[in-house]
Fold this protein.
Amino acid sequence: MALLTRSRAARMAGLLLLLTCAACAALREWFSGPRRLAFSHERHVTLEKLACANCHADALAADDPGMPARDTCDVCHVEIDAQRAPEQRIDTLFRGTEYAAQHAVRLADEVLFSHKLHTTGQQACNACHRGIEHSGDVRFLAQVQMDDCTRCHAERTHYKGEDCALCHREVAASWAPPNHKANWTRAHGLIARAKSEVSAERCDLCHQPASCEQCHRVQAPENHTPYWYERAHGLVAMDDRQNCAACHEPESCERCHATARPRNHVGTWGAPLATHCLSCHQPLRNEGCAACHQATPSHRLARPQPPSHFPGMNCRQCHGLTPTAPLPHVDNGDDCSSCHP
């Protein structure tokens, strides 16, 4: 039994070594080999002044614009490539007679799109393929985003934002993406806050902010338990106010805490200098004392400066951290003469 186990372990080790060597060889070829799909639109469009239809023959007449054919490129490159190294010839762009980057313009079956209908309006190609005339990579073609389409279509009187069927076979206002299943109720908050640019994770494509607010007025987030209200929410608010602000306005905090003081605001919390205020209540909407103490009558009875004081004196030189003349209140950085004339 022990010999059998050792034999099996040896075979597994040999297989693992073989796979490792194959992976290393593939990576070496990937990183050190020629860049197969490098293509300069800038060279062809900007410098050589070629029209897009010179290479994309079906761009003006077909639903699928297609990619350049080998014989189209050969018109120029038979002579040009004769003086180039093999890795710089157009052979690297083709698999036989088919362009190797067909995937760059291949749309999902879900999408309805006719290229010829978009070229009849006499628009320049770079109206959709922005910057294509300066690109040096075939993958640049794939950078036409859904927002580019909706932005252009929004200018047309017949288009409405919810008219999904204009460009989609199945997607509609009542359609839910596949990720809206299983544990979506619990997970959607993380997706919404991530603000991903991936279409399947963009809430704003289907939902308005009002829909979030309408739901969460009835259904609170899962972590908003009684303990959350009593103890935890203040700590989270200090650490991530932006997250709270997704649902809550500052006025909602003020309305609640006008009658319900935080649980740690007890005993000697406010004495002697009340520096605790600035540890939580930041950023302040204004920097004066009235930001917190709006109705304290003693603030209107501040003592005037002694006769020996004169304008321009450095009050904090004596009333700062020295023990001889400590301040009876927190130093919020204001000009002392604003309260002590």
Q: What stands out?
A: The radius of gyration is 34 Å. The beta strands are 94-95, 98-99. Confidence is low (pLDDT under 50) at residues 29-36.
